[in-house]
């Protein structure tokens, strides 16, 4: 069972580029790229930073594959 | 990609160092011969080409690496001693480094017995390749660095 995320969708909604989001959460752009592809599961710290940027609870951004609607 | 570039620089330096030490092996033999027969009119002969190559190319690569690390690091000691591969920018790169280090450690466990067995062939080649142990011993760091780089490359993208 994999953890999926809505980072790409939320980033587009907030008009943020991958580079801008990367700067906001203090990681490299490559990390945002792999995260959006689903190839990387972030740490709790990074997930919380992303959640703060999008002003959403973590579980609305990161979810189990089985919980996908 | 910094890690890959730096890894290949280290491999080139290791090969040059191995070459220089192989030549120095003949120097050691010459010195031993001199002490056995002090009437000889020279202590040793040496081909200085590998040493020049190592110090010029190695010095240049080390200088570039240090300058790059110094630019990105506040601490002088870190810039001087810490390999550039470990200058991670975020948690994902730290994870990639951790995985690569794990792979390099495992490769050591397999490479060590193979290299030890290869050393058993030394008596058969000692006449033609007296510096054989230096070459074989250099395989250990080469194996580990290559494993590190392959793992790093595999996990990066």
What would your notes on this structure say?
- The complex is a heterodimer of chains A (69) and B (157).
- Chain A has 4 helices and 2 strands.
- Chain A is mainly alpha-helical.
- Chain A has one domain (3-63): Orthogonal Bundle (434 Repressor (Amino-terminal Domain)), CATH 1.10.260.
- In chain A, 20% of the residues are buried.
- Chain B is an all-alpha fold and 157 residues long.
- Chain B has helices at 2-36, 49-72, 76-81, 91-119, 122-125, 132-156.
- Chain B has 2 domains: 1-87, no CATH class; 89-157.
- Chain B has 6 helices and no strands.
- The chains are: A mainly alpha (69), B mainly alpha (157).
Structural class of chain B: mainly alpha
Largest interface: A-B, 11 and 7 residues
Helix content of chain B: over 70%
Determine the strand fraction of chain B and express it as a percent band.
under 5%
The termini of chain A sit apart by 15 Å
Q: What overall form of chain A do the CA principal axes indicate?
A: globular
Q: How many beta-strand segments of chain A?
A: 2
The CATH homologous superfamily of chain A corresponds to: lambda repressor-like DNA-binding domains
What pattern of helices and strands is seen along the backbone of chain B? HHHHHH
- Helix count from the secondary structure assignment of chain B: 6
Question: Mind summarizing the main beta sheet of chain B?
Answer: none
Structural class of chain A: mainly alpha
- Mean pLDDT, all residues of chain B: 88
What kind of sheet is the major sheet of chain A?
2 strands, antiparallel
Fold-level CATH name of chain A = 434 Repressor (Amino-terminal Domain)
Cα-to-Cα separation, first versus last residue of chain B: 10 Å
Order of helices and strands of chain A: EHHHHE
Radius of gyration of chain B: 19 Å
Give average pLDDT of chain A, whole number. 92
